[in-house]
Write a structure and sequence with these properties.
The structure is a single chain. The chain is α/β, with parallel strands linked by helices and about 375 residues long. The protein folds into 2 domains: about 270 residues, 3-Layer(aba) Sandwich (Rossmann fold); about 90 residues, no CATH class. Helix content is about 45%, strand content about 15%. The protein is built from 14 helices and 12 strands. The strands form 2 sheets. The chain has a 10-stranded mixed sheet with strand order 11-10-9-1-8-7-2-6-3-12, with helices on both faces. Strands 4-5 form a two-stranded antiparallel sheet. A hairpin with a 2-residue loop joins strand 10 and strand 11.
Length: about 375
């Protein structure tokens, strides 16, 4: 009985320390998680993200190039950014690194507009391209936060944003943050907590990640390499009676707190949204739709049956009101179209009705070809 009560007390203590770690990180602008391989950095970020996803007032934006989140995280929409989606420009001066341009900018903005939480799957292995996308998204969302705060009567942001950058050293190193391209991002990063934004970054070694960024974050420390143990970390070890080089797996030290990361179990899987978003930007027309073999055979053998099938598909997709389609033996007559044209001339049709009228005209032209 004593052992069970002791275990429950330890569990409660770790859970409280974990919640305090998240709360303090959100207030202070984020934390940098550093530990050797297989210590549990990604699992800790999974647990943080899953907890914050339950809060409707916190957005979660994840950047991952290792594809670990794609296969192991819980359910979250995924937007894949390929290497060809980021175009490379010319280098104008020695102060500038490569300049880039986002080819599918409208797709990214639509995803950020329609999805509360979003996982960016970075297929490019170029650190400069990864860093560019992170800067672009962060700067864009920060501008939205500032605009919302300026328009609010209380000058308060209603929602907070939590950014997760897996393997942060592959996006930001000392060379990339010294570039003039990073000036705006560094300003946003420095003022993030004032706009209710927090950055959760992770790396295997302290020295690999940009010192300009990590020096402004609170450290969440796991097992460290002996080469990363600086004099300041040695003082922390003595003060709290710890040995960072021998920390147990899933054990973390944060601002005087020692806690174990909670057990994470995957709840469903992430899902891709690229195809659905592209369909919203450019809706597919009957002419663009690829005909299947059965469609071609039906069109050749029985043209009228093929047309009726196309009409049903359009009605199902657009949910055309029945009041617009005056059927006479399941066939539209020229008199029906004349009435609709008269209504359109009198400006009595809504935008939806006008769209349906144009579709009816297109189908009528197709029907006349077969007749």
């Amino acid at each position: 009985m004593k052992n069970k009560s002791k275990e429950s007390t330890i569990k409660d203590h770790s859970e409280k320390a974990f919640n305090d770690f998240i709360a303090q990180s959100l207030v202070s602008g984020g934390s940098h998680i550093v530990a050797n391989k297989s210590h549990g950095k990604t699992r800790l970020m999974f647990a943080i993200c899953e907890k914050l996803q339950k809060n409707p007032n916190i957005r979660n934006i994840i950047f991952d190039g290792s594809e670990t989140w794609l296969y192991s995280a819980s359910r979250i929409p995924v937007l894949t950014i390929g290497d060809h989606d980021i175009l490379k420009g010319t280098r104008k001066s020695t102060e500038d690194l490569e300049r880039f341009q986002l080819q599918n900018e409208n797709l990214v903005k639509l995803a950020l507009k329609t999805k509360k939480d979003l996982l960016f799957r970075l297929k490019s292995r170029s650190p400069s391209k990864r860093g560019f996308l992170v800067r672009y998204v962060v700067n864009y969302l920060d501008q939205l936060q500032r605009t919302e705060k300026a328009k609010s009567p209380e000058h308060i942001n209603k929602k907070a944003i939590a950014y997760f950058i897996e393997e942060a050293q592959d996006c930001f190193n000392s060379r990339s943050t010294a570039s003039t391209e990073s000036e705006e991002f560094l300003t946003v990063f420095n003022e993030a907590r004032n706009q209710k934004e927090a950055f959760f970054t992770a790396s295997q070694r302290l020295n690999d990640f940009s010192k300009t960024i990590r020096s402004k974050q609170h450290l969440c420390i796991g097992s460290l390499s002996m080469e990363d143990l600086t004099s300041s970390l040695r003082r922390l070890e003595k003060e709290h009676n710890l040995d960072f080089s021998r920390m147990k797996a899933k054990t973390w030290f944060y601002e005087g707190l020692v806690f174990n990361s909670p057990e994470f179990k995957q709840n469903k899987k992430p899902y891709q949204i690229n195809k659905a978003l592209k369909a919203q930007l450019t809706p597919e027309t009957p002419e663009q739709r690829r005909e299947t073999l059965s469609d071609k055979v039906l069109k050749w053998l029985n043209p009228k049956a093929y047309l009726e099938l196309e009409l049903k598909k359009l009605e199902a997709q657009k949910q055309t009101p029945k009041s617009l389609l005056k059927k006479n033996g399941n066939k539209e007559t020229s008199h029906d179209f004349e009435e609709l044209e008269e209504k359109e001339l009198n400006d009595t049709l809504s935008e939806e009705e006008r769209d349906n009228l144009e579709e009816e005209r297109d189908l009528r032209e197709i029907e006349e070809e077969f007749i």
